[in-house]
Amino acid sequence: MPRPGPIATLALTGSALLALVTIAGATPVRPAAVQATPASPTVVELYHSQGCSSCPPAEADLNVLAQRPDVLALSFGVTYWDRLGWKDTFGSERFTQRQIAYARAGQGEVATPEFIVNGAYAVVGADRAALKATIARAGAPAGGPSIAADRGTVHLAAGMVSAPDTVWLVRYDPRTLQVPVNAGENSGRTLSHRNVVRELVDLGRWTGPAATFTLPAPHEAGLISAVLVQRGNGGPIVAVRRI
Length: 243
What we know:
Blueprint: E1 10-11, E2 18-19, E3 42-48, H1 56-65, E4 71-77, H2 93-104, E5 114-117, E6 121-124, H3 128-138, E7 147-150, E8 153-156, E9 165-173, E10 177-180, E11 190-193, E12 196-206, E13 211-214, E14 224-231, E15 237-242
Parallel strand pairs: 3-4
Antiparallel strand pairs: 1-2, 3-5, 5-6, 7-8, 8-13, 9-12, 9-14, 10-11, 14-15
């Protein structure tokens, strides 16, 4: 079996062939940048795998970003490296499909490591300078409704929208988690992860009128929740709130 290069490649179903997949899509409409704050942080998603030898530097960068109050740093483990000897302990096919949706919408490639900023900018995970510049340029998500939360519910204010937006609940573990890797390209290493996403729940659609969404009970204790409002499937994130 060919080995993936510096950037992990998507394993094609039913074949040993590995190929870097670029899915063409339309250029997204990106909201105007506004300054990120703790109340409205820049959303930075990292797509990576514990089986990818080029991922640890990007994981370390995300761990640093997790300390910034003006950034919501989210660690998504993908599954397409699992067949190469090590199954990512936090990987989920749901996260793989989210990355594929971004690629179909025109955001980068299905590859690791990859950062997606505000759902609108793809950055190769090895390019630290580009990531820093993109976060500064992107600012906070904009163009969506204001979000309020109380115990068990989330309220979206009325606003203008051209098509239904997806309302996501993300729950992540804020601790630093040490994972010994015993096989694959990172065999013998212990990897540090922060803000590991443990739940990604589609709460429903926001169509413009004020709306209320009920939050499901968490599957495990100690997680932090955030709500993202996102254009379509793989489009820009237009509103965010930590709960």
